[in-house]
Amino acid sequence: MVLGRLKLKHLFFVALLMLCILHARNVSAQNFTSTTYTILNPLLAPGDYSTSTSFRLTSTRSQFSIGTSTATTYGVRAGFLYFPFATTPAVSATAGDAQVSLTWTSASAGLGWTVGGYNVGRSTVSSGPYTFTSVGNVLAATVSSLTNGTAYYFVVQALDSFGNSIATSTEVSATPAGAVSPPPPTPTPTPPPSGGGGGGGGGGASPPAPSPTPTPAGTADTAVIFSGRAYPSTEVTLLKDATVAAKTIAGGDAKFEITLKGMSAGSYTFSLYGTDTYGNRSSLFTFPVTLTLGATVRIGGIFIAPTVDVDKSEVKKGDTVRIFGQTSNDAEVVISVHSEEEFLVKTTSDTDGIYFYNFDTTPLEIGPHTSKSKAIVANEISTFGKSVAFKVGTQSIDKSKRKILKGDLNYDGHVNLIDYSIGAFWYKRTLSEAFKPVEAEALNNDQVLNLTDFSIMAYYWTG
Length: 463
What we know:
Blueprint (H helix, E strand, L loop, with lengths): L1 H21 L4 E2 L16 E2 L20 E4 L4 E4 L12 E5 L4 E5 L12 E7 L7 E6 L3 E4 L8 E8 L5 E4 L3 E3 L48 E7 L5 E6 L2 E7 L5 E6 L5 E10 L9 E7 L4 E8 L5 E2 L1 E5 L3 E7 L5 E7 L4 E6 L5 E7 L6 E11 L2 E2 L6 E6 L3 E2 L18 H10 L9 H7 L8 H9 L4
Parallel strand pairs: 13-19, 21-28
Antiparallel strand pairs: 1-2, 3-4, 5-6, 5-19, 6-9, 7-8, 7-10, 10-11, 10-12, 13-16, 14-15, 14-17, 17-18, 20-22, 21-29, 22-25, 23-24, 23-26, 26-27, 26-28
């Protein structure tokens, strides 16, 4: 009896072993090593091999599938090292008495990453080394206990939810100084004495001419300085509260700087945009600024997003659509094609900042699609710019000259509350030179904003 039970147990374990062998699968894993980053909580998943003489892979790749895989006729490009996922903040620095006030734009993260906070780095030497301080998930900080007359240099790091740095701004500088003295009041002239009485009654003496008010010592100009990247040898426009304040031409290296002097203290909304060699405008880069008397605010690290366009309004499924635009010269350009699944591809711009990519529409479904792009130069990463639309269908149609939709004041292809807000700003005001062509194209070309124009926007409303 005991022997029979042992045989049954033996047969059971043999059967269990055979079952495990038959259902075993290979498990593949990859080791990650680096002196500059850490992979937290990696996940292992089973992997298999496939072979084919000709195939196409259309799928979502994990962010841990880093870099490039190649074959004679096939390649995979994926991962957060190949497609950067966080934009670099633009930073403003305002010097005060023994302190510098910093503000910055929000870093925009993608591909599943979120920004969890920021570090502020400071140094008395350009390019560092920096001493970093965590300031939390905020967009402003004041660095105090500084020495007046000493130049300080600052950068801002964007952190992920684990506290790891995922983007670093370019450097800005400021020199703290003592408080600026307000100008003294204008002295009131002393009235002349009355004329003496007597025989002829002479008239009173003429009042002395007032002396010019001297410029008080210690006062400084109130100014704001913008610097960053746009497109090589093209125009950059600065708006102050939706009105054109200045224009400049970027250098051959795409860098620009605009200075506004003689400003009044107060709060302003500044916006910049670039115009490429095709005549296309970039999306707006907007930065609210508060100016104090006698202070100069420096806003650096601005990276105007690329322009983007397509050569076809409709493309036959399986044909290519040419996606092109302009950005900083010699930049890496990430192009997003938005479909049911987002497709990301990469190309580079030439010495004039021109880029293009012939996108194969085979994996796209029939219907409307959009594309947008962002650029990377060194450690600077722009935001995604405006989107351009195209359709995948049964025929290819070259894109005709842009048709302006009536009521569309910001040229985004829609008439909605944004256009109403723009119209409300200009309501019964004198139009700026920059806005006059917009009014002429999108409204009734009478060079005024009134109820007639709001009726036009209501008629063409798209939402």
